[in-house]
Amino acid sequence: MSASADAIILDCVGEPVPVAAVAAARPDLPIVVLADVDRARAEQMVTEGAETVLPRSGARIEDVLRAIRSAAPRPAPMAPTGERLARDSESLLARPMTDAPQLEAVGRLAGGVAHDYNNLLQVIGGNAEHLVANLAADSPLRGAADAIATAGRRATQLTQRLLAFGRQQRLVTTTSDLNAVVATAIPRLREQLGRHVRVETELGTGLPPVRVDRDQMVTVLTNLAINAYEAMPEGGTFTLTTDLCAISDDMRAHRPWLATGRFVRLQVADTGSGIEEQALPHLFEPFYTTKRAWRGGGLGLAAVYGVIKQSDGYIWVDSRVGEGTRITILFRPDSSDLAQAPDARVATPVTPPAIRLLVVEDDDGVRELLESMLEHHGFAVATAASAEDALAFEPHRDFDLLLTDVVLPGRSGPELARDLRTRAPDLPILFMSGHTGSVVGAGSDGEAEAFIQKPFTSAMLVARIREMLAGK
Description:
The protein is of the alpha/beta class. The longest helix is centred in the first third of the chain and has 36 residues, at about 100-135. The relative contact order is 0.10. The strands form 4 sheets. A 5-stranded mixed beta sheet has the order 5-7-8-10-9. Strands 12-11-13-14-15 form a 5-stranded parallel beta sheet, with helices on both faces. A 3-stranded parallel beta sheet has the order 1-2-3, with helices on both faces. It is built from 14 helices and 15 strands. The protein is globular and about 65 Å long.
């Protein structure tokens, strides 16, 4: 167990639950237990040293956070090390020393349930999509099918925000012109802010490219615009500025966690009511609320923080009540020799009926859904539940593409891909996963392997497959 931890979350299935042993090993840390037990057993766990016991099947992220924050103070085992001081200072808002590791623990908890949750959402969303496509507009069941599809999309968005907060989502980064990203977001921002808020841009020229996930950056700007809108109920100005800046010693004196060097800077400012000083350290915490505007209250700002940090960037907030708010985001210029400007989208060809796909997925529901989904679009599909099953019949078949889950029982998807590549070096391989911590790695040419994150729609999957086969 890390000596720098500030809380322990015991995620328990069945008995026994080692509360007493954990409490004896780390008496300085509050223990939150997630377990489906009766009241008597929960009370016993508290006497053994647990701070609280929450139902494993019904606990929400905010419940866990609340339990950690309300924990009685424990004596610190040792003074913070320089490494920990740097890490906690870099949490950008001078939050108390114990908060950053607690938030990281909740982020890991969110990532831990993502795999099963995303597989469930894949089945729910895929079947709802199939129902909507095949029910007549006047069918009495059409409204129910639409409601299921809408709820599935909202659940997917919530999962993505949780994972962004925990810095465990997979970003699809490309070498990008930050000004172009801002320009792409402007129409959505104007729609979000309405007619009473003026949107202005001051975009620098000659900026070096940065490596970001362009779609996630548009989402970041949209979330910031939502909070700015709440801070300007009677209208105002929302300004986006980009330029190139060098981190000076004077800047590091106030923010020592900043690295030296040149950065591409994006600043987002509003002329709203501003933020109270006591709220500033907590703005990017999930579900934190304040009485004034910029009240958060969900995962929007926590997701913003997660995306920026996962992009190796910096973010902080400057604000005073009555004087508006300015958010500063820094990105390192992309100096990779291998980085290429994003290619134009390849025109979608008609799918030939002879295209053969090998689909490897251990979840029965997801595997059956994928088979039905792809056959509906004219592909010939063979399925396997494991790498071993796939290799058993692969020598007798020639496939045009392998679609495989990353996490499989026994041998993993990347291990299967390496075996098949020895037999068919040019075989296109598309990885999929609901587990955001999955690491795919690089192919033989050093390029990152193709990847699609669950849950996805049939249109997203088919478009990705066609794009890969078009370049074959």
